Amino acid sequence: MPIKVRIPTPLQKLTNGKPEVECSAKNVAEMVDVLEKDYPGMKDRLSEGGKVRRFINIYVNDEDIRFMNKEDTALKDGDSISIVPAIAGGR
Amino acid sequence: MTRDEERAVALTIARHDLTTILDHCSAAYPNEACGILGGTNGRVGKVYPMRNVRPSPVSYEMDAAEQFRVMKDIRQAGLVLVGIFHSHISSPAYPSSVDVEQAYWPGTLFPNYPEAVYVILSLRDQGQPVIKGYLIRDGAVSDVPVNVE
Q1: Nearest CA to B108 among B143, B138, B142?
Q2: Tens-digit pLDDT profile for residues B120-142
Q3: For residue B15, is it within any domain?
Q4: What ipTM was assigned to the predicted interfaces of this complex?
Q5: Nearest C-alpha of chain B: how many angstroms from A89?
Q6: B76 at the A interface (CB within 8 A)?
Q7: How many domains does chain B have?
Q8: Which domain range does residue B144 map to?
Q9: I want to staple B25 with a disulfide (CB 3.0 to 4.6 A). Which of A60, B4, B33, B120 is the partner?
Q10: Residue B12 domain-assigned (yes or no)
Q11: Domains of chain A (ranges plus CATH)?
């Protein structure tokens, strides 16, 4: 069973409107590369200098990767990934 | 455009829900407070006061884990994200340049939550809080009336 990735609305332009895509990868960094291959432009949207962009939250089975191993967080078939923009602002 | 986006011509909120927002923002004063509004068809069904992990009089950022839980709760309740609220301490109830920047995916003009009304509560005059709603998308900020029932 592949990894399922929920794609947030602002990135669905890259996935031809699909809210969920599937891929195979052994960790989050590799998942970003695989998504880039299937949906060009995805890597730049998600990461900067090999790190997940600030204000972008990635969850593996409901757990924030910041509290796991960040980009090195291991993935396995059947995992469910969510990409969620942070909600912030102020002044 | 989704049906919910089409309907975001006004946001309707019950008085007791407005009180929840006011209480949450007043409790955080003099720091900004924030929260999420779940509902349907532009009508608020549930207010989620959220933790501000960057508390100051000029900034807010929702707790990522709490945000994830709440969005799941909203989906499971059959609701959608109809609004995102935060307070302004010393400025009017209008999105700041930071608010606008953060409404879009980093480095793009793709709105993060195009269906959400951004609700801002100004506590500049604590005796007379002002609440207003906006859509932030397509590179523009547009007014959305907030109706209290």
Answers
A1: B138
A2: 999 999 999 999 999 999 889 99
A3: no
A4: 0.93
A5: 4
A6: no
A7: 1
A8: 3-7+21-148
A9: B33
A10: no
A11: 3-85 (3.10.20.30)
